[in-house]
Amino acid sequence: MNAQTLAMCTAMLLCATLAPAEEHPIYASVDPAKADEYETVVERVMAMSEDEMLSFMPDLPYIGMCNCPRCYGGAQGRNIFSWSVDRPHQLICRHCDLVIDLPDERFPETERLIGENALGEEVAFPYYLNEETGERHFLTGNLWMYHRRWLTRQVTALAEAWQATRKPEYARRVALVLDKVATLYPHWPAIHNRSVNRVRFCDSQEPPYAWDAGRWGNFHNEIPRVLLTAYDLIHDSDAFETLSQERGYDVRARIEDDLFRETYRAAELSPYKVSNVVGYDITSAAMMGRVLEEPAMVHKAFGWMLKNLDEGFFYDGTWHESPSYHYMTLGGLRRAFSVIEGYSDPPGYVHEETGQRFDDLDPVSVAPFWATVQDAFKAIGHPDGASAVVHDTWPGERRADPREATVSALLPGY
Asked: Where does 117-209 show beta strands of DSSP type E?
């Protein structure tokens, strides 16, 4: 074989084994004809300076639950306050209309919850201690939740505006936010953050995290899907290269490695693979595999989906909890299946652990049991179509059609 033939064969082999890039965006549809509408949505954030915009991404994870220190209304400290970007440091209780302007001398956050992150750095969360009730109020930490939620919505809108207009200033704003989160994430501590009375640092700062703990989120939504979707939308822009030149490091690599792949690692190590929230991190992991062009991620995520079918449902098709959780899980699996439907591996790719490759993947055809689980609980539904009241069944839930006659039914697995 001469040198020219060898070079040609080598080139052909490389073409057969290297991944062709998927066309981005994979997971969003933007209509350029509506460019004016997309631009209108981002007028508020674009009126800010870059520094002001970035200030809405807090330096620490937010505290998701916080009671009003005056009325203690609501339930479990969930969504107790209203907030507006026009008054960014103000919280208003939805139950007693208490207005808190932070910092507020009536509720001084002089106490600190102190711990270490995975890098061994000391981290502190300020809180107000109500000495009468003994309850800690992470008012500033809860304010961060509203700030971060607002900013992540703007990131999506900015990414859509770039897709519609290709104006570089929109993609730049998205890249700035993604880069800031990627810079902060290694320093964020893992905290228990699902209850007013359980906010604390995790014993281990490395994944796997406990069910109520995480850095970006918790056990089922540590992967920041909203940021992944925004990254997908501006994937082909010049914003990453331009920002890299300004900052002296590879911005795209930092975002992919220090943020996305690290959150994927948390999902991969999680012991909660079979759960009724399969539609969160498992779906996001599959999406990440396609957006980052990592087929192994797609294969593993699909394996986790099938694991839920194989281990979470009894042989009669019922989910192992209540009818309500059954349908919740079905909805999550439908979402998970949808993000990989039609997916094909790069030419020549075979997953090293399973020996499988995907070509125009039809998840349902690979999982025939999927048809069995769809209507399994309808067999014991009430005559008016309401779900059977077993375990945590939502009141008023109706999943079956009303019927005029009833026959005996048995769910032998359940």
From this structure: 122-130, 135-137, 191-192, 200-201
